[in-house]
Recover the amino acids of this structure.
């Protein structure tokens, strides 16, 4: 069972360490962790994706709400959110596979953002499952380097009628 925690925290030194330490001390797994400033420079938003059974998920939320540096905790399932991950992928190419790479980019809505005579850097912004799929699609090509941001997410807008 996966859960997304969108946590507003005070933008101060060691807050990240204390929150991640909470997970480590209780042996909770962090699948993804992203931190960034909000529109208020004194507040950051931490997006943590974690998995576990129902009891573990409940414990994580309870423990997060006890921390003094935490302003607000929003918890939601993947189906209740819009989530994205940014991935940059450097590949080595040649005349034989260049067209295949470009076709895969078109299929996956990826952009080639840098290119040289032998290498290209591809940008993908999508759900984590599709970024992983893109890596698998390019497995036969010489992948040189991969950088992924981790998941950022917002709860879906609620429509009122």
């Amino acid at each position: 069972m996966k859960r997304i925690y969108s946590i507003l925290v005070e933008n101060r030194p060691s807050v990240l360490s204390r929150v991640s330490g909470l997970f480590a001390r209780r042996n909770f797994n962090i699948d993804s962790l992203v931190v960034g400033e909000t529109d208020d420079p004194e507040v950051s938003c931490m997006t943590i994706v974690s998995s576990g059974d129902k009891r573990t998920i409940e414990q994580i939320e309870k423990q997060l709400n006890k921390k003094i540096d935490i302003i607000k905790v929003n918890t939601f399932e993947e189906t209740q959110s819009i989530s994205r991950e940014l991935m940059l992928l450097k590949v080595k190419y040649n005349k034989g596979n260049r067209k295949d790479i470009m076709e895969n980019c078109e299929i996956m809505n990826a952009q080639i953002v840098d290119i040289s005579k032998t290498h290209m850097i591809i940008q993908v912004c999508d759900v984590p499952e599709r970024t992983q799929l893109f890596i698998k699609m390019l497995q036969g090509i010489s992948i040189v380097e991969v950088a992924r941001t981790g998941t950022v997410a917002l709860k879906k807008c609620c429509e009122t009628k």
User: Anything to note?
Assistant: The domain at 84-154 is CATH 3.30.70.1150 (Alpha-Beta Plaits). The radius of gyration is 19 Å. The chain has two domains: 2-80, 84-154.
